[in-house]
Amino acid sequence: MSFHHSSAAVTLPAGVAEAPRRRNEWRVVPLLLPYLWEYRYRVATALVFLIIAKLANVGVPLVLKNVVDALDPKTAMLAMPLALLAAYGILRFSTTLFAELRDMVFVRVTQRAIRRVALTVFRHLHALSLRFHLERQTGGVSRDIERGTRGISTLMSYMLFSILPVILEFVLVAAVLITRFDWRFPVVTFTAVGLYSGFTIWITEWRTQIRRRANELDSKANSRAIDSLLNYETVKYFNNEDFEARRYDDNLRNYEGAAVQTEASLGLLNIGQSLIIASAVTALMLLASQGVLNQSLTIGDLVLVNALLIQLYIPLNHLGMVYREIKQSLIDMDRMFRLLEENREVADRPDARDISSGPTAVRFDHVNFCYDPKRQILFDVSFDIPVGSKVAVVGHSGSGKSTLARLLYRFYDVTGGALRINGSDIRDIRQESLRAAIGIVPQDTVLFNDTIRYNIHYGRPDADEDEVVEAARAAHIHEFIESLPDKYEARVGERGLKLSGGEKQRVAIARAILKNPGILIFDEATSALDSETEQAIQAELDRIARGHTTLVIAHRLSTIMDADQIIVLDAGRIVERGTHRELLEMDGAYAQMWALQQQEQQLAVRVPA
After folding, report:
1. Which CATH number applies to 22-340?
2. pTM of the predicted model as reported, rounded to 2 decimal places
3. Between 3.40.1160.10, 3.40.50.300, 1.20.1260.10, 3.40.640.10, what CATH number should domain 362-606 receive?
4. Mind listing the pLDDT tens digit for each residue in 222-244?
């Protein structure tokens, strides 16, 4: 079992929502038709190869009957029937040849469908709101996509090259039985196929519910595993390896029970299928044997009936597995396509436009916001960031400072008021254009598990090597990178864990510098740096902020003394605003924060670490 995980799965009560979901599972089939139509000539060629393969397959027992009859001294010549034997060999080879050619022609259709659908889901996930991504569990979403794309391959291959061939082969076998034998042979055959199909569908529908529950428990177990491994350090901090193992084992135990039930039900299905087929084969062989004894049939006819039934039995037995797999594929695809049904909480309006080029001004216009209707975060927040000016926002933890950056990026829409850029409501601006105009250095920098060059280059992928190095120099990280054995090719580890907090922050600063946007957001950008590095980088941040419209979310007040305006937030409300000097003269909340930080700094100087 691989370590992936999924969004929290809800086990539906028996008989409550299963029926609608079962009806809806087949809705994914029309979604695949455009991919088949795109490669319609390949599909048509594959179908031609399929028909030839099946005709050759049914032709084998017919030739075999003639070979047997030709070798029977009572009914025919004693010479070796070389032409018939050659035809037998050619038909045997043709069956495999055209089946393989069919698969070779069709493989691109399947793989292109997988690629297109996976890309569509991937793009949609990136288009969903931050709220969805905060609530989902990454591994399970990837597991859903993995299962869903595999389901596409299964469905397209089995529907066209298992279900259709079985139907075609059944029609051909039925034609032979009807034209060459009396009515009892086709009646027994049709009855057996009908019973077999009905039994298979009945049991498989029951197994589907068990399999769906096993899938959800599997995802839950993998969720626990990946979450625990991602928080490896926290587990170690609290010595909770055994606790995590017990929680993981609890999930595995539940999955074990569902998996055992799944396999037991599979055994019941196989036993029933075999009983039906064995009974039919026995009945037909009895009829054929009677015909040989009363000389209405030849030995070759007996061989023909046996060979035809074996050839029909093999795909019929396969049909049970195919139906199960198709049902499972539909479930897996349904789960993946349900991701596409997740509504975009933040979507572009049809008439949304791009930000006009040139200087940009930002205005928070009586903004109200809440993540949850029961708990409002911002209350009537209004302030301007004029073109090229620097506005800082300060306040205690939980006052709503970082929410301002999320709203400016439009990860969420305001619940009241408006947020404007150059006078336009950002809801009237295309998100791609909006975000291209903003650069951010976040408080918690998360890097891609790739090289340092890749992570800096991510700020502007079309930048050249010199620009990447220049951005690294501006962020005072170039010398550190050059000291590493692999220099810019050094890998940073998952989430950048191989770098210190300060090093990660400087990579993030370099990335923002490289992007060179019109609006800059520094979200406690130097919080992870020591005082000496902070002073050096702060000077650099001040330099790159010149000429940019800059929003600084700050914890250390010493970093925003030169701001054109300082906004003091408390519990989501603006309680003070002004320059550093004006706020100190007010002797209010800002002055108290300043005094407290000055005391902490003096104490740190007296008692060095």
Report:
1. 1.20.1560.10
2. 0.58
3. 3.40.50.300
4. 877 888 887 888 888 888 888 88
